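Researcher: Good morning. I'm working through a list of sequences from a screen, and I'd like to move beyond sequence-only analysis. For each chain I'm collecting a predicted structure so we can compare shapes side by side. This is the next one on the list. No need for commentary yet; just the structure.
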Amino acid sequence: MAADDSYTAADERARAARRAGLQAKKDEQPANTARSYAAKQREWKAWCRTPRAAADGSLYSWPDGELVTPDKLAAWLKEDILLRRVAPPQKKPRARGKGKGKGKAVQLRRQLEQEQLEAAALAEAESLAEALEVPLAEAAE
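Model: Good morning. Structure tokens for this chain:
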């Protein structure tokens, strides 16, 4: 009987140490991490509680509850997660006035800029011709 008591006491100490370790880890976890995990954990727990049909048609639930096991994780991925559809990314419309410059707005803008440059060059040529007292036709050559 003394052996049973010591085994029970050691087992209880091990459980207490495990609980203390888990609590210490939880206490050190950033709040955002705990918050982001919470929804996924609720989803896992709900999935574990949901009865499922066996091959013979009878209903069963997991005997180990919410404990994560490789088989249970694979079943969850197969039955729930991998069946979710993710929308493919949509192409974003190109912003007008950017790109290779083949758009009508880009061509009009470039034409206007060219006309403004030519007008500025002509005005400069006229002022130089007046300053040098040279006819404009000769100054433009």
